[in-house]
Structure formats: C-alpha cells, structure tokens
Amino acid sequence: MSRKPITEKLIRKVELKLDGKVWPLVVTHNVLIECEELTGLNLIAGDVNLRRPSAKLVRALLYVVLRRPGAKYTLEQVGDLINPENIVMVQEGLLTAWAASMPAPDDTERPTTAAA
C-alpha cells in the first residue's frame, strides 16, 4: 500500500469525469514540475495563459494529474480523451484544481525585511 504525499492529503480535490471514471485532480508543486518538463513552459513565472491555455499545456497537465491517482494512459491517449465536447470541462477542472492548490490569501506568509 503506497502512502500519499502530505500535499495530496491537504489539497482539496477537484473531480473530473473522463473516460467513464471520476478522477480526483490535485495540482502539487511536483505536478507543475513534471508538466514543465513535458512542455518546456515555465508555469509559475507566468509564461502561460491560464485562461486560454495551449493544447500542449492542457494535455500535459491532464496527463500528469491523472497519473497521480493511478491512470495508465500514455500522453497520446490523454490527448485522445480531450475532444470538442469536453475541452471546456477539462480546462475548467484543471484550472479549478490549480486554484485549489493555492493557499488562501490570509494563509500566505509574506517575507519580512530586516532593518539595516
């Protein structure tokens, strides 16, 4: 029995029905890193348009988040799961999962500057 990382236990899961199954989507820092490795895009620095993401980004992010709960799809198979009928739902699910991984504004620790 494998143990889930603490981040996956703490982050609210977003459910997405795809290929006849409901998948829990969780975006962690490691998910973003894996997605960056697949796409070459810097996801944290704002190099991507999250409101209108590229097809490459949607496919890569969906591929990585589906692998976390055990999906065995290839990258190409995940691309085949995305179609004109579900693309908006997939994009909204991924964006909602990404937003759910962010701390609430009150929870963020802001760096302090030391007096010189």
Outline the structure in words.
There is one protein chain. The chain is mainly α. The protein has one domain. It contains 5 helices and 2 strands. A two-stranded antiparallel sheet has the order 1-2. Strand 1 and strand 2 form a beta hairpin. The longest helix has 14 residues. The N and C termini lie far apart (52 Å).
Summarize the topology.
Elements: H1 6-10, E1 14-18, E2 21-25, H2 29-39, H3 55-67, H4 75-81, H5 87-100
Antiparallel strand pairs: 1-2
Distance from N terminus to C terminus (CA atoms, Å) equals 52 Å
Order of helices and strands: HEEHHHH
Number of domains: 1
Number of helices: 5
Sheet-strand content, in percent, reads 5-15%
Summarize model confidence as the mean pLDDT.
85
Note poorly predicted spans.
none
Radius of gyration: 16 Å
Shape verdict: globular
What are the key terms here?
116 residues; mainly alpha; 2 strands; globular
Please provide a brief summary of the model.
43% of the residues lie in helices and 9% in strands.
